[in-house]
Design a protein that fits this description.
about 230 residues, 7-stranded parallel sheet, two-stranded parallel sheet, about 20% strand
Length: about 230
């Protein structure tokens, strides 16, 4: 699928910022969304993104309004990459209820609204929706109850949406990394995590897949962090 216009959500920092760089290097016009204006504005200033919007993905109205603006200004949008997310530490009994609500609003509810927004942007297609979930959505990977439940919600989005869109021109891909750290960090050097660039490269592999195949899921594990 040849893409001209893309949206990268959470593209102001971390893995999302690396995705923006890689897409821009392929000549794709990228609109970057994020909650911190300084970060998304810098992606434009650096020449990697053509535009930005400040979007809090815990608010459905903000997601749909931003999607409508992007569709009008960058038609046709054929690629949406969702990299935004949070990880909340603590056993379930230790986590504040307000933190639980915030976590679910971003990871679970936010992800389903982003997926729906992407499908609305694509219309009859073509289109490709890519999301970063987590290996903790799959059996055999440890995490706390809150994080595991929310990531399994993203796994459900992958399964349900890919079935709904199987006979259309819209692809759905989920990336499942088990541990991510900045390139050059001790964790990456020790093999206990993969770098943000590594995950971005996996996303580009899925985006550039030939028309004869779909990359539904990619499970990524750090060198020393396999499933069992």
């Amino acid at each position: 699928m040849n893409h001209r216009n893309a949206i990268v959500i959470g593209g102001g920092a971390g893995t999302g910022r690396e995705v923006v760089r890689l897409l821009a290097a392929q000549g794709i016009n990228v609109e970057v969304w994020g909650h911190a204006e300084a970060d998304v504005a810098k992606a434009v200033a650096d020449g990697d993104a053509t535009s930005f919007q400040v979007v809090d993905v815990s608010h459905a109205d903000a997601i749909y309004a931003a999607g409508e603006r992007a569709s009008k200004e960058h038609s046709p949008v054929t690629l949406v990459v969702h990299t935004a997310g949070i990880w909340t530490p603590g056993l379930l009994a230790e986590v504040d209820p307000a933190a639980i609500d915030r976590h679910l609003a971003i990871v679970a509810a936010g992800s389903i609204h982003i997926a729906r927004m992407a499908v609305l942007c694509f219309g009859d297609g073509p289109g490709h929706f890519v999301q970063i979930a987590a290996a903790s959505a799959k059996h055999g990977f440890a995490d706390t109850t809150l994080n595991k439940m929310a990531k399994r919600a993203q796994d459900g989005i992958q399964e349900g949406l890919s079935r709904e869109l199987r006979e259309t021109g819209i692809r759905v891909t989920s990336i499942y990394p088990n541990a991510i750290a900045p390139a050059g960090s001790d964790a990456v050097a020790a093999g206990d995590a993969m770098s943000q660039v590594d995950v971005a490269s996996a996303i580009l592999f899925a985006v550039n897949a030939p028309d004869s195949m779909d990359v539904d899921e990619l499970m990524l594990t750090s060198r020393n962090g396999g499933r069992w």
